Amino acid sequence: MGLRTLSLNTCAALGVIAVASLSSGCLPPDTPPVARPDGLSSLHVDVSEDLDLHEESQRPRKLGLAIFGVLAAASSRVLDSGLGSVGYDLPEGDEETPSIALTVAGNTRGELNLCDCDDGRRGGLARRAAILATMPQESLHIDTGDSLSEVIAAPDGLDDLAARRAEAMVEAFGVMGVDVMLVNLRDLRLPVDHLIAAGQRAGVTLLSSNLLLDEGDPAFESGVLYERGGHKLGLIGLTAHHNTNPRFLDHSGLRFGSSEEIVKKESARLRKRGAVGIILLSGLGVSESETLLHALDDEDLPDMVLLSGTARLTKAPSWVRGVPMLEPGDRGRQLLIVTLYERDNGLSFDEPEGESQANLNELVKSTRRAGLQGRAYLTDNNGQKRTAAERREKELVNLVETIHTLTEKVLIEPPSPGAPAGFDVEWLDLEEAVSPSPDVQAIVDPVETELP
Length: 452
Fold this sequence. Notes:
The chain is of the alpha/beta class and about 450 residues long. It is built from eleven helices and 17 strands.
């Protein structure tokens, strides 16, 4: 992806403390945001988010994350709010070859054009299309669903404008080259037969492994196999249950199958067809997805989970049994790009292990605490919060010492040269600097003019 984070160093680890004026000589000079050639800025890990980065894997994994960049990004977020990506720099002399790029967006909720956000007019299908047009040929473009409508479908049907908006979005997906879309609850605003027809016209695969017709057949594709960069990736999709209305799907002639059994069945089928990695598109939400992963046997676990509809705006993966869970930005305002790397004639996805990893995890937790406290310390608010912040000064100083000690351990005990590169993660903000695609804008504009 062009942008890679720097190797972890002591200054990066102490940056959040330095911003509170409690460390000496480590804060780098003002650093301008890293400019991307496409005019975008990448988003750092936000230390105010939950950075639960590691759970012990129960089996040998073929998926991994570049963890070192997470910490560098976390500390840099407090220093400068527009830099970098999450990545792992290989030891000197090792090499990695980009193999597959995944672009991921979702939870768009019918937003065809720019949003009127407090922090600026961002997003829009035409901007997303412009970025997808710059991606390497060996890319897989994914939409995690909840994209076609603001509201969940109701038995009394939908109005013409809502239908036109949903159909226009599927059409735009086809023009911009989206390969597959998870069908989630907000996407069922279109009747099933209309949605299937729209997907066929646009050439977009509609995926849901657990949505079944009354007779038990899959309503949409239950599992798909894509070959990119000489490697086969299998995709499975789980549509969310309507917890407040169990009869939600009755009027559509649909019912749910068992998520656990379907994941087992589809994983085995796709791996038998040569899939070297299984990616689960999950509309179940965070807690239900975690519960599912804990219920699966080791051999049935997916290699990655891409969440839909959570709107948590996280900037780092969370790990469950060695499986990374990622989510795209909310309302189409960000685009998640995951770059997979080829190693040893395959796709390596292992999570770094050992004492170095344990030290790094503890360092991330300490850095997060320091960042939160440093932010509070800097928040003067006309003096109203100064007293409370000063009471934290002693703890901040203690955290400086802890971070310094742990950083040295990480630097002294880096991962071995054979450690896998895993994958890079970027959340790209679809800002005004991105010139929209005229082809997609031509689809969006006629629908937008019909809005009241």
